[in-house]
Amino acid sequence: MAVFRGIFLGLVVVTLVFSATLSAAHLDGFNFGSGGSQTHDLFPQFYQSSCPQVNDIVISVLQRAIEKNPRVAAFLIRLHFHDCFAQGCDASVLLDNSTTRISEKGAKPNVNSLRGFEVIDEMKAKLEEACPLTVSCADIVALAARGSTVLSGGPDWVLPLGRRDSKTASFESSNRDIPAPLPDLSALITTFERQGLDETDLVALSGGHTIGFAKCSFVRQTRKSVCPRRGGDNTAAPLDFVSPTRFDNSYFKLILGGHGLLPSDQVLLTGNRRQAAELVKTYAANESLFFQQFAKSMVKMGNISPLTGFEGQVRKNCRRVN
Ligand code: HEM
Ligand SMILES: *[C@@H]1O[C@H](CO)[C@@H](O)[C@H](O)[C@H]1NC(C)=O
Ligand SMILES: *[C@@H]1O[C@H](CO)[C@@H](O)[C@H](O)[C@H]1NC(C)=O
């Protein structure tokens, strides 16, 4: 035992020294060479010495916000998705209109629909007090999405950090790269593939619709008991009417029962793709398998084209560039 422990400790030390050397070399060589932009990997301990309380601060603001309005958890999970799909996970979605910029907030998938910005502002304000100019808005969004999942009863995961904030927004990318809720499975798959996400990621991440609401204009057909036959376009109907604030696998059970929520949800089962249909059944039967894959896919989504190193900036106010 003692021998094994000795070898194990030795390995740990060697690994630590090795990775410290690597990251030092990394920092020195970063972006000054002629080779153009070298990308840095995100890593979970990014704020370990610069802001160790980062997650605690995010969670305490989140807890209070959810107590006041249980819908906040869904807002923030969706916010991370819409940030990452438009121009990468760079907090571009948080930037307001300015004289030189058209905000993503007015893009079709977001306008009158994407919410939770004030909660991010509050987290940022608290973090600026505790660790000035240290924690990026893009990381706050990623942490808020994980926290929202956990506080709703869903899975937890180890979250790589170190994203930096963009100085630009892309109204066009939001309109082009965030999928529409249409019953076209191959279009959904293509939209995800463009982000480096596969069919398994599509099905698992669609499970994010286990919490939250959609406007009747999207779900009139499938939510006849809640949505009036005409009008009431902005009335909110629960996506998962069995447990609208609980992160569980009832989303997949509802699809199996033909109570798919958005047309883009039901089509995962009916869209003539064997793999997607099988996954819907698998996740409906086994919640822990869904949780495992959701966690993996969230990490993958959170890694879409981050800015790292000296790219971008750490914004002081998430709504504008410094
Ligand atoms: C697969 C493609 C997807 C489409 C077409 C889609 C579309 C939509 C639409 C149309 C709404 C309703 C918005 C409204 O009525 O204002 C919605 C809500 C929501 N989406 Fe998605 N979504 C997709 C994937 C995802 C992913 C990957 C996540 C996160 C992992 C996610 C999380 C949410 C959440 C939590 C809500 C509820 C928001 C609220 O309660 O306000 N969605 N989605
Ligand atoms: C931003 O400005 C554009 C162009 O003036 C406008 O169409 C859009 O509605 C504005 N967006 C928001 C979120 O106010
Ligand atoms: C559900 O999936 C887990 C893996 O997450 C596996 O260990 C377990 O055996 C599965 N349960 C059933 C009933 O298939």
Automatic annotation (TrEMBL):
Query: For the site Transition state stabilizer, which positions are given?
Result: 78
**Entry keywords, A to Z:** Calcium, Disulfide bond, Glycoprotein, Heme, Hydrogen peroxide, Iron, Metal-binding, Oxidoreductase, Peroxidase, Secreted, Signal
Query: Primary place of residence?
Result: secreted
Give the protein's function. Answer: Removal of H(2)O(2), oxidation of toxic reductants, biosynthesis and degradation of lignin, suberization, auxin catabolism, response to environmental stresses such as wounding, pathogen attack and oxidative stress. These functions might be dependent on each isozyme/isoform in each plant tissue.
Q: Which residues form the active site?
A: 82 (proton acceptor)
Catalysed reaction equations from the record: 2 a phenolic donor + H2O2 = 2 a phenolic radical donor + 2 H2O
Q: Which cysteines are joined by disulfide bonds?
A: 51-131, 84-89, 137-318, 216-227
Q: In what residue span(s) does the Plant heme peroxidase family profile domain sit?
A: 41-322
Positions of heme b binding: 209
Which cofactors, by name?
Ca(2+); heme b
Per the UniProt record, which EC number(s) apply here?
1.11.1.7
The record describes how the cofactor is bound as:
Binds 2 calcium ions per subunit. Binds 1 heme b (iron(II)-protoporphyrin IX) group per subunit.
Give a Gene Ontology cellular component term annotated to this protein: extracellular region
Q: SUPFAM superfamilies of this UniProt entry?
A: Heme-dependent peroxidases
Which biological process terms from the Gene Ontology are attached to this UniProt entry? Answer: hydrogen peroxide catabolic process; response to oxidative stress
The stretch of residues making up the signal peptide is 1-19
UniProt family annotation: Belongs to the peroxidase family. Ascorbate peroxidase subfamily.
Gene Ontology molecular function, alphabetical: heme binding; lactoperoxidase activity; metal ion binding
Q: Give the species this sequence originates from.
A: Malus domestica
At which positions is substrate bound?
Answer: 179
Which subcellular locations apply to this protein? Secreted
Stated name of the protein? Peroxidase
